[in-house]
Amino acid sequence: MRKRGIGLNLFLCFFVFFILSFSAWGSNYPAPAKGCISAQCHAGIEPIRAFGSGMLKQIYKKAERLNDPNGCVICHGGNPIETNNKDIAHRGAPKEGILDVYVPFPGSMWINEKTCGQCHPKHIYAMHRSVMNTEAGKIQGALWGWGAPIGYNHVYGNYDISDPDGSVPIFGTETYGSYIQVLMKKFPNIFPSSLKRVPEADLSTIEKKPEQAIFTYIRSDCQRCHVGVRGRDKRGDFRGMGCAACHIPYSNEGLYEGSDTSVPKNKHGHILVHTIQSTRKAKVTVNGETYSGIPHETCASCHNRGKRGRFAKISIHVPQVRSLTVEPIKTIS
């Protein structure tokens, strides 16, 4: 019996070793089961882009000199060697890299020049000056509606920002560029070269200038959907910041459905999976299902005010009543 027990134990040990080894050999990560994706850390995490894709190859190449063949530190920083202490692993960044701190949200507007901007500098420049970040049009419309003395001029944005590269668009065809030049000459008030941060209401003069109330209103309500901030921790509002607002998938419930063993699947506020969604070339796999592109749910995490914008984006239109019998107004004599 004892010999049989020893033999069974040896067989089980060999079997477990074989399974673990096969799992590591079958992985497409350059350094399977090591560093950030070791068993103690983010084992099973999805690659940020498909293995073999051009983007992931560039990340691996950049990471070679940072002692992290799996490339995690390119976007997140941290210590890729530490696998036993989470606090140490999530601290600082390799000295040879661009980052100098650990970054849990690489897509954030406040750090993406050093993360996404390593490869996409023009996109980052444009994004910081886009209406999804400044919301200059929405602010101007609200102020005009409340009688603020700026008229049709676009003066304010969510943040102080300027556009020093000139009037020629970074992206688009020559035809598009020429079209924009015509618009800028015709409507110079909506193409400012700089914006000021939305001011706060001056309570000492609010009675004389009640229109200032709009400053408080848009700060607390209208402006909560720009890409500089995360969504509320409420169903349907979960989303990332900056680049991640569109390119990292979140479910309506904000629950993680990937394979990273370190991420709880019952805690709201997490990404859907650790994979970028973008064009048709960028495939995202969730629970065995694969999709590409950016789903309308991502757009609707912001574009849902009044619940009509979201319907329009998914081609569900609210029917208009074209014939309606109106009762005559009865007056009291």
Strand order of the largest sheet: 1-3-2
Number of strands: 5
Give the number of helices: 12
Helix content: 25-40%
* Mean pLDDT figure: 85
Radius of gyration: 26 Å
Through-space gap between termini: 108 Å
> How would you classify the helix and strand content by structural class?
mainly alpha
Q: Major sheet: size, sense and barrel closure? A: 3 strands, mixed
User: In sequence order, what are the helices and strands, one letter per element?
Assistant: HHHHHHHEEHEHHEEHH
Shape annotation: globular
Low-confidence stretches: 14-26, 316-333
Number of domains: 3
Report the portion of residues in β strands. under 5%
Model description:
- The protein has 3 domains: 28-104, no CATH class; 131-225, no CATH class; 244-308, no CATH class.
- It is mainly alpha-helical and 333 residues long.
- The termini are far apart.
- A hairpin with a 2-residue loop joins strand 4 (283-286) and strand 5.
- Mean pLDDT is 85; it is low at 14-26 and 316-333.
- The chain contains 12 helices and 5 strands.
List the topology elements.
Blueprint: H1 2-26, H2 54-63, H3 72-76, H4 86-89, H5 121-128, H6 131-134, H7 136-145, E1 156-157, E2 161-162, H8 174-186, E3 194-197, H9 213-220, H10 244-247, E4 283-286, E5 289-292, H11 296-300, H12 308-313
Parallel strand pairs: 1-3
Antiparallel strand pairs: 2-3, 4-5
